[in-house]
Amino acid sequence: MIFGNRNLFNSTPPVVMNLIMINVVMLVITWVMASTFGIDLNQILGVYPPGSPNFRPYQIVTHMFMHGGLFHLFFNMFALWMFGRILEQVWGSRRFFIYYMVTGLGAVTIHLLVNYLHIHAIQTDAAA
What we know:
By secondary structure, the protein is mostly helical. It has one domain (13-127): Rhomboid-like (Rhomboid-like fold, Up-down Bundle). Helix content is 70%, strand content 3%. A two-stranded antiparallel ribbon has the order 1-2.
């Protein structure tokens, strides 16, 4: 893909490019595992709330690489490419990777907290 005189893939810094590749590979592996072996990797690697029989501690990290389909992956990777390459060029690869991981862990923390509060409110209403 060429835009002007620059090849957009050559101008993408390494962490952003590797994250995009990992996410694409994970979606393909998810499809292959589902169609070939009947294994739903979203159920295994996607995050579940603590206390759920499906919760595993590794899901706190692995959920960042799971996507619900091609459009979900495309828009997430497009945003990563648009904003991540600029941040990585300014901050450097190490600092950007730390930022990516910290924001992913922060997102799962907020997600699990909101789910907990929602479930707790339902349980409180049901008990009343």
